[in-house]
Amino acid sequence: MRIWVFAEEVDGLPTSLSLEMLTKATSLGDQVAAFLVGTGSAETMGLLAAHGAATVYHLDPGDALPSSGAAAALAELAGTENPDLILFGLQPTDRDVAGRLAGRLGVPVLSNAVDIIADEGSIRVLNEILGGTTLVETAFSGKGPHLIVVRPKSFTAEPGDGGDPDVVAVALPDTGHSGSARVIERHTETAEGPKLEEAAVVVAGGRGMGDEEHFSVVEELAGLLSAAVGASRAVVDAGWVPYSLQVGQTGRTVKPTVYIALGISGAMQHLVGMKDSGTIIAINKDEEAPIFGIADLGVVGDVHQVVPKLIEALKARG
Ligand SMILES: Cc1cc2nc3c(=O)[nH]c(=O)nc-3n(C[C@H](O)[C@H](O)[C@H](O)COP(=O)(O)OP(=O)(O)OC[C@H]3O[C@@H](n4cnc5c(N)ncnc54)[C@H](O)[C@@H]3O)c2cc1C
Known about the structure:
Elements lengths: L1 E9 L2 E2 L1 H13 L2 E7 L4 H9 L4 E5 L7 H15 L3 E5 L2 H14 L3 E11 L2 E8 L4 E6 L6 E5 L15 E5 L30 E5 L6 H13 L3 E4 L1 H5 L20 E5 L5 H4 L7 E6 L12 E4 L2 H15 L1
Parallel strand pairs: 1-3, 1-5, 3-4, 4-10, 5-9, 6-9, 11-12, 11-13, 13-14, 14-15
Antiparallel strand pairs: 1-2, 6-7, 7-8
Helix pairs in contact: 3-4, 5-8
């Protein structure tokens, strides 16, 4: 089976989601290729190959907003190369390209996939509904290529031997008005510590932290544990922290070894973004809080008393 993975490059490296999808693709198909949008650094090429891409179709969009051109280029290539499956990540550019490509090819997209099953000639997709409490299995019928949008952290990126991929340069097609938007400036949010999606430990705070000032305790604890800071939507909506820290259905999906939830109730929309974490520790003053339903370790208590004590103990340990 021929599988393509839509890969994005950020700061000279492929996104972790691209590598997760490539790893899954190699378990499903024998001919795996990446369609890379970016400058195509040597490091990116090496990592794509190490995660299973024998071929990399490389489109460098320059300063063009890439979605329109990438979809047109993919449609043209798919017409000649006939991939069975094209995987996209659940992130803005990928979703934009998947939608445009579906329109161009006249095929459906299955979105929010947490697993893909290919056997006996059928390709089926599992996705979670009702806040992750119910799994739905959907099978493609009709002509391909089948387009799937994959949720981050559904698969684990595992590098193999790699080598040098065959790189095929793809020209940016002229798509008229829809391709005329240009990227004129980029803002990179300054952040300290590990990235939220890649951190081994996440310390997340919710409305129970009280206010913006007290939220700094979450940051202090995270600093001591070399952890990333996360937050519930209530906190983001209140303006205490930026949206980039939001964990959940409309925020980031994380899968750290340890997730510490401070003053977070555990609404379904939050759980869906962190429930696959290794060990979940919750501190909440309400023993009925739903977060305790999935916590491995729960402390019923006031965050303003428990967390400072925890910080004190960690500092004493040195
Ligand atoms: C379409 C949609 C998408 C959404 N997407 C997201 C999402 O991506 N991420 C997300 O998080 N939410 C999301 N939400 C919002 C979600 O439904 C909840 O409203 C939100 O998660 C609640 O945040 P919270 O747990 O911080 O606040 P609350 O639900 O208000 O919980 C606060 C908790 O703190 C506890 N507490 C209070 N004081 C203390 C104290 N001193 N010590 C200890 N515990 C204390 C309380 O007992 C309570 O359990 C979404 C909602 C919708 C409708």
